[in-house]
Amino acid sequence: xxxxxxxxxxxxxxxxxxxxxxxxxxxxxxxxxxxxxxxxxxxxxxxxxxxxxxxxxxxxxxxxxxxxxxxxxxxxxxxxxxxxxxxxxxxxxxxxxxxxxxxxxxxxxxxxxxxxxxxxxxxxxxxxxxxxxxxxxxxxxxxxxxxxxxxxxxxxxxxxxxxxxxxxxxxxxxxxxxxxxxxxxxxxxxxxxxxxxxx
Length: 199
What we know:
Layout: H1 3-12, H2 45-56, H3 63-78, H4 83-92, H5 100-125, E1 130-134, H6 149-161, E2 165-167, E3 172-174, E4 177-179, E5 190-193
Antiparallel strand pairs: 1-2, 1-5, 3-4
């Protein structure tokens, strides 16, 4: 049985895992991250292809890890940003040097990028042509505690993009290239669709 299968077997069998502590006392970990309802049909072929590409670019993984990470990521996205499943699958690979912090960064980044692309695909599908870039207020940096020059430059550009309108199918020109909210590493921005007649 694969690692991912073991992680999800209780879900498929309809069993509910017993909590280790009462909800009021449970520690805030990746295991207690809240999820939201999500339509799995929104995970389009383009989202799946993009997810595969992103996973293959992560230096800690090789081809032997791909199926476990991809299946867990797809499950996490399809069930509404269930980061714990992906986080646990990555840690379950027992990769040398893989810390909980790095597993959390990878899982959150993959979910954020897939969510951003899903949102964009949905907007295009609904005929929405423009959206507003919304800066979250949190630094758009991969390492906020020790930001690199690239992190600092990216965050400044994303902060300056706040409130700007862009074409949903094209993106917004930032630092010399087209970008979309939530799709660059460390980006926490979102988009606000412009509905004709309400803008």
